[in-house]
Amino acid sequence: MFNLILFGPPGSGKGTQSEKLIAKYGLKHLSTGDLLRSEIAAQTPLGLEAKSFMDKGQLVPDEVVIGMISSALDNNPNAKGFLFDGFPRTEAQAEALDKLLKLKKTAIHLMLALDVAEAELIKRLLGRGKTSGRSDDTNEEVIKARIAEYHKKTTPVADYYLKFDKVKHIKGEGTVDEIFEVISKEIDGKI
Ligand code: ADP
Fold first, then answer.
1. What is the predicted pLDDT for the residue at 80?
2. Residue 142 has what pLDDT?
3. CA gap 65, 35 in Å, rounded
4. DSSP secondary structure, 40-56, as one string
5. Could you confirm whether 14 is annotated as catalytic?
6. Which atom of ligand 1 is nearest to the CA of 36?
7. What is the atom index within ligand 1 of the atom nearest the CA of 146?
8. How far is the CA of 17 from the centre of ligand 1 (A)?
9. Helices (H) and strands (E) in the chain, counts
10. Residues of the chain with pLDDT under 50
11. Partner of 111 for a Cys bridge, out of 5, 27, 64, 87, CB 3.0 to 4.6 A?
């Protein structure tokens, strides 16, 4: 198995690169943002709870997303590996993920962290908001709240994996294909 975390702030290109990575490496894509938006669309109790946090640009409580990831791992027993996108976003989530993977006799092999300047993030998210139908991308205050949450709660996750020497930083600015080539080289060196 090969398990990868694609890490980076909102708007750093995780979703775009994930699409290309799952096509090339046959990994199962687990995006907590996408899973939460499906729950909202299906109007489940979990979705309704999550929406109130997401609309404000805040993180959804750890137990909610950890439960979702745990079910997704159980539902994909034959996966060649997983691509985690937008998860883990707190240290508690990282610790929980390590435990879940250990139970399945596997682990995280690599974290690729996309680095993008803040002004560029805001520009990209507002641009995406014009067509994505995502309400959290149309309001600059909500975008800024998401970036603030990232700095406060999510950056420690990179430090957590750094302790195990699993982190590689990638410049997240340039063309989609240029960035994908750098990412692919890192994966090919590990897989
Ligand atoms: P982005 O990375 O562009 O903000 P996502 O689709 O990954 O977009 O996430 C959208 C929202 O969903 C986040 O602002 C947050 O409220 C919620 N969310 C997604 N993943 C997590 C997570 N692992 N933990 C807590 N909240 C999450």
1. 96
2. 97
3. 9
4. HHTT-HHHHHHHHHHTT
5. yes
6. 12
7. 14
8. 16
9. 9, 5
10. none
11. 5
Please state, rounded to an integer, the average pLDDT across all residues of the chain.
Answer: 97
Is 134 among the residues known to form the active site? yes
| Calpha distance 111→5 (Å, rounded) | 5
Contacts of 109 (CB under 8 A, 6+ apart): 2, 3, 4, 166, 190
Beta strands at 82-85 and 28-31: parallel, antiparallel or unpaired: parallel
pLDDT of residue 127: 96
129 CB under 6 A from ligand 1? no
Q: Identify the residue whose C-alpha is closest to ligand 1 atom 16.
A: 54
pLDDT at 15: 96
Looking at residue 160, what is its pLDDT?
97
Enter the pTM of the model: 0.96
> What length is written for the chain?
191
The residue annotated as part of the active site, out of 51, 134, 144, 153, is 134
Residue type, 39: E
The domain limits of the chain are 2-27+79-188
> In CATH, what class is 2-27+79-188?
alpha beta
Record the tokens describing residue 73, joined without a space.
């791992």
